[in-house]
TrEMBL record:
Protein name per its UniProtKB record: HTH-type transcriptional repressor CsiR
InterPro entries found in the cross-reference section: GntR_C (IPR011711), TF_FadR/GntR_C (IPR008920), Tscrpt_reg_HTH_GntR (IPR000524), WH-like_DNA-bd_sf (IPR036388), WH_DNA-bd_sf (IPR036390)
Annotated CDD domains: WHTH_GntR
Gene name in the database record: csiR_4
Coiled coil location: none
Species whose genome carries this gene: Boseongicola aestuarii
Length: 237
């Protein structure tokens, strides 16, 4: 399978930098809940009209969803919405949970560096703060996504086993398997914000186990954290 070019849509650490994240979140939800059916054709022009944005954020949003494995570029213009099911997602996330658990356990065993620990602790504290703020759900999910990418990416990079990261990268072209991807159902904002609080609490427990150099607990918590995603996304599929 040819891998899509990421340079336009993502910075080196995987953060979406210029696309309108509101468009990405909304389109992702529409694909998951079936509003955009499998084999539907979508394009920059259509997205621009749907969300009243220019062609540039529409293009970058589509590229982001292509990286997540939710759409595929057509031979001509535009993209096609791909079909997937919760069983496939569960199998893929089980594999990723094992890999991320291995990374967390290895990092706990070898020790996390001071700068990374500080960055991850600051990110967790920031999420706690914005979840208690008056920001809109869209603003919260955008920032949560950025910090989530950093959290999982730092643990993956810091474990010292490049083969773990390579294996995770090979999974990223399956739907929603990109490291740090967050799914958010805007129709259930209250429940979703509570889910983000729970996810951030899991981040805190995982980091605590890593800092205490408890590899078994760090690996177990990370695997449990990863395995929550297919349970949740099955509600959409």
């Amino acid at each position: 399978m040819n891998q899509p070019d990421r340079t336009e849509a993502f910075s080196p650490d995987g953060t979406l930098v210029t696309a309108d994240k509101r468009v990405v979140v909304s389109l992702r939800q529409m694909i998951l809940d079936g509003s955009l059916e499998p084999d539907s054709k979508i394009s920059e022009v259509l997205i621009s009209k749907m969300f009243d944005v220019s062609r540039t954020p529409a293009r970058l949003a589509l590229r982001a969803l292509e990286v997540e494995g939710l759409i595929r570029k057509r031979d001509g213009r535009g993209y096609t919405v791909l079909a997937f099911n919760s069983e496939d997602l569960a199998k893929a996330y089980e594999v990723r949970g094992v890999l991320e658990g291995l990374a967390a356990g290895t990092l706990a065993r070898t020790g996390i560096d001071e700068e990374s620990a500080r960055t991850l602790n600051e990110g967790i504290a920031e999420i706690d703060a914005i979840l208690q703020s008056a920001r809109t759900a869209a603003e919260i999910i955008q920032r949560y996504q950025d910090i989530n990418v950093v959290f999982h990416g730092r643990i993956m990079q810091g474990c010292g086993n490049d083969f773990v990261g390579l294996a995770v990268t090979r999974l990223e072209y399956l739907p929603l398997l990109r490291l740090g991807t967050v799914v958010f159902n805007e129709a259930k904002t209250f429940e979703e914000l509570n889910r983000l609080r729970f996810g951030n609490m899991q981040h805190r427990l995982i980091l605590d186990a890593i800092e205490r150099q408890d590899p078994y607990r760090a690996e177990t918590l990370m695997r449990e954290h990863a395995n929550q995603i297919p349970v949740y996304t099955s509600l959409f599929v």
